[in-house]
Amino acid sequence: MKTFNRLARAAAFTALALISQAAWAAGSIKVLKSASCGCCVAWGNHMREAGFTVAERDLPLADLNAAKVEAGLKPGQTSCHTGHINGYVIEGHVPAREVKRLLEERPDAIGLTVPDMPYGSPGMGDMADADPYDVLLLKRDGSTEIYASYR
Questions:
Q1: Residue 11 region, left (φ>0) first, then alpha (ψ -120 to 50), else beta?
Q2: CA quadruple 25, 82, 30, 139: dihedral sign
């Protein structure tokens, strides 16, 4: 019986460690959005399906835009919602895969953006018919570079 109890405890500990590791790997993202934006909700669902914990907060448009400026976003780098995760900004319809990559690589940057709202990006319609778009790395000096391309 003692052997069984030890094995059961070891199995439970291992399971908890794996669950904790998976939760840490994905992370928790706080998303600022407007109350009327359905594609923001769809993007949040995309992130949840990828294992992220998503906390959404609706803001008036003026407050949302002020939060974007405060986060370091420049004109031409914005979209409809702004996420914050582990010290990074995630602007717009960034695929979960790129957010996970960002969190693994930990570049010295503000974060990632998919400017505007390209059709076929996560939360923006059918990916099979997607318009081409780039995920941009937001550098601390305000410039960007292509982090990933979707064609």
A1: alpha
A2: positive
Of the candidates 138, 84, 82, 85, the one whose C-alpha atom is nearest the C-alpha of residue 112 is: 138
Phi-psi sector, 111: left (phi>0), alpha (psi -120 to 50), beta:
left
CA 68/CA 130 separation, integer angstroms: 26
Place of tokens 């109350």: 35
pTM score, whole prediction: 0.82
CA-CA distance, 20 to 15, in Å (whole number)?
9
> Could you report the per-residue pLDDT of 5-20, keeping only the tens digit for each?
444 444 444 444 444 3
User: Would you state the CATH architecture of domain 28-150?
Assistant: 3-Layer(aba) Sandwich (3.40)
The tokens describing 108, both together, are 């010295």
